[in-house]
Amino acid sequence: MTPEDFDKLQGLLATRAGYRLTRDRMNLAEHRLGPIARREGYANVEALLANLWAHPVASLGWAVIESLLNPETWFRRDRAPFDVLEQELLPALAKARPGGRVSLWSAGCSTGQEAWSIAMAAKAAGAAAEIVATDLSQRAIDKARAGLYTGFEIQRGLNARAMLRWFEPDEENWRVRPELAEIVRFGRANLLDEPTDEMRFDVIFCRNVLTHMEPSRRARLLDGLERRLVDDGCLFLGLDEGLEGETVAFRPVSGRQGLYVKTPAAVRRAA
Amino acid sequence: MNFKTCLIVDDSRIIRKVARRIVEGFGYEVDEAADGAEALSYCTGVMPDMILVDWNMPVMDGLTFLRRLRALPEGGRPKVLFCTIETRPERIAEALAAGADDYVMKPFDGEILQSKLTEVGAIAA
């Protein structure tokens, strides 16, 4: 692909997904677009992109965007946030909510490992959790919903006891058990879109998403998360994702890296 | 400097070599044994901090080794991870019940081993 192609890809990713495609990813982009070019019947990646720039078809555009996002994820990533959720947040929330009902959102869930990790924590804490998990990539969501993981994927972050407890073998792979599957709903969603419904969550996981955002689009993403979170609700970001000076909507919880609490509306107005 | 020690028990020299390289990367000092009997006699001399053990080996298999290890004085101390191609849930459960701290299905890579060792507290998070 030409440098001009890459510039246009950067623009496409930034405007549609708010995703920052750094220049060091040019080879990776070439590599990821190859299979799409073949699948769609183009001679090569250049031909695919030339056609996309000339006739911007939404479906092809999204296929290209999806392939360039960073899908990396694993079970109980960083571990501590899921321990805090299971041992501290969920017991308190289940006690405070009518019927012990707690709603959680895995925002940017990729292939689902985070959502299942949340579901395991909820079961262990005895909370009646309803979990929504969304991602921009339809392919990632399809895999997440299938709940089917390879031996490599299932072992990354899960110990054998947890694997046996929550998954069952399916030929060479491992499939999530119905008791977890029934408390998670997956759907495709763009975190840059304005919320069009009244769905609110007690806890939101949006980990390692901000890291890859265009700086100019972070505010829009954070605004969406704020609107979806109940007052005093909790937000988990990636361990290295700070919000210094960026917003008064969330304040960090000391001693709990990556955990933020939504500031009550009255305090925000005063600020 | 106080090095932690790991014994790798596998009848495949190649697997031992691959596992050794990964575990040394986590700061462990590594020794090798080619079957359960060899490993058991090693452990009666000096008890390692961690043991990676295959299931199917000549002379003495991994499960027999694990049961005898856990019966030794100080034999409860090492973190033991099974590393084997056996993936049937009932066999995995059997290994855990016999005293394995965790279970790794082959093939594995450095990231999997790192996550398993972190989970059992053999390396820092």
TrEMBL record, chain A:
<dbReference type="GO" id="GO:0008983">
    <property type="term" value="F:protein-glutamate O-methyltransferase activity"/>
</dbReference>
<dbReference type="InterPro" id="IPR022642">
    <property type="entry name" value="CheR_C"/>
</dbReference>
<keyword id="KW-0489">Methyltransferase</keyword>
<dbReference type="Pfam" id="PF01739">
    <property type="entry name" value="CheR"/>
</dbReference>
<dbReference type="InterPro" id="IPR050903">
    <property type="entry name" value="Bact_Chemotaxis_MeTrfase"/>
</dbReference>
<protein>
    <submittedName>
        <fullName>Chemotaxis protein methyltransferase CheR</fullName>
        <ecNumber>2.1.1.80</ecNumber>
    </submittedName>
</protein>
<dbReference type="GO" id="GO:0032259">
    <property type="term" value="P:methylation"/>
</dbReference>
<feature type="domain" description="CheR-type methyltransferase">
    <location>
        <begin position="1"/>
        <end position="245"/>
    </location>
</feature>
<dbReference type="InterPro" id="IPR029063">
    <property type="entry name" value="SAM-dependent_MTases_sf"/>
</dbReference>
<dbReference type="InterPro" id="IPR000780">
    <property type="entry name" value="CheR_MeTrfase"/>
</dbReference>
<keyword id="KW-0808">Transferase</keyword>
From TrEMBL, chain B:
<dbReference type="InterPro" id="IPR052048">
    <property type="entry name" value="ST_Response_Regulator"/>
</dbReference>
<feature type="modified residue" description="4-aspartylphosphate">
    <location>
        <position position="54"/>
    </location>
</feature>
<protein>
    <submittedName>
        <fullName>Two-component system chemotaxis response regulator CheY</fullName>
    </submittedName>
</protein>
<dbReference type="InterPro" id="IPR011006">
    <property type="entry name" value="CheY-like_superfamily"/>
</dbReference>
<keyword id="KW-0597">Phosphoprotein</keyword>
<dbReference type="GO" id="GO:0000160">
    <property type="term" value="P:phosphorelay signal transduction system"/>
</dbReference>
<feature type="domain" description="Response regulatory">
    <location>
        <begin position="5"/>
        <end position="121"/>
    </location>
</feature>
<dbReference type="Pfam" id="PF00072">
    <property type="entry name" value="Response_reg"/>
</dbReference>
<dbReference type="InterPro" id="IPR001789">
    <property type="entry name" value="Sig_transdc_resp-reg_receiver"/>
</dbReference>
